[in-house]
Amino acid sequence: MVGTRGVPARYGGFETAVEEVGSRLAERGHRVVVYCRPGDGERPAEYRRMELVHKGAMHRRSLETLSHTGLSVAHLLRHRTDVALVFNAANSPYLPLIRAARIPVATHVDGLEWKRDKWKGTGRRYYRLAESAAVRWSDGLIADAQGIADYYREEFHAPTRLIAYGAPRVAEESDLLAGLGLQPQGYHLLVARFEPENHVHTIVDGYRRSGARLPLIVVGSAPYADAYTARVHDLADDRVRFLGGVWDQRLLDQLYANAFSYLHGHSVGGTNPSLLRAIGAGAPTLAYDVVFNREVLGDSGAYFTTEADVAGVVEAAEADPAGHPARRAATRARAAGYDWDDVADKYELLCRDLADGVQVRARRPLTAQRVGSAPRLTGKAVES
Questions:
Q1: CA 92 from chain center: how many Å?
Q2: What is the pTM (predicted TM-score) of this model?
């Protein structure tokens, strides 16, 4: 498993998937190797039966992922494996090296990275081209949301294996909340990296405009985002509390499980682990209105787009405290469709198909067109 920050999972969806899937495959008797970026602490050789290989990275936003994956792939080529799983289409330039070594490789393409505000100009064009390279050079593509699968089918005529993430079942405990001065069902919650496409600014500003009585608890931060973080803080009033990153998983789970509502602003990343954790905790969810979030929440959620919408859905939730138990039950019911054991089954089947030489999909040359200011890359691939 190549291309993530590695395990233990402390960052995002890729890392969570690697830990949850990799540990299950290891428990089933498979040898699982995970490439990790070194942290500030120790570099264990094993975690939850997975073998860990630690490789460095250049600490620049535009080069961090590629530099780490390059070192990881160099090691992988010297230590052969039956199958490689590459996470993030941005790492697609290394796919020809893996395939040249006759190692079957599948790429987890994630969300639409080129839509993220942090990528401008050259970075955005690179991500668009990286998508087409992943289609051309992967033996298989993995999408974690139907919206992403639809995008690759419509944009590239390329089929994917649809494998969503799992939703953890979060225990209903609350003993750690007192340390933060919080009461169960006594606050609204937002958990996100501080990036514009996660709409932290929209939620904080919309909440400030509302007549909400319960405080808004904000968990999260982001590297390389000082200006945006300052903007978000400037939008807040004294009802908003910023906790920064919360690395105590038990405390984070209790924040989810006891929130009166969870506000989710992610818009481009496919199926998001924060949203899945919220439904696993039964947190009634108010979400940004995009196809990925509706796919997870269905009718159990309420949706917003603007700051005025945020104010409206927060006030509506507070105006109906009697409906809170029903909203919790409806949200938790959505988690039943997102089971990590089922996810591991699908990854195991994909890996067996690749290792056994089963043709996962066929390639045809891609052509580039222009739509607006961004290249539109089209092609055709069909499942055998």
A1: 18
A2: 0.84
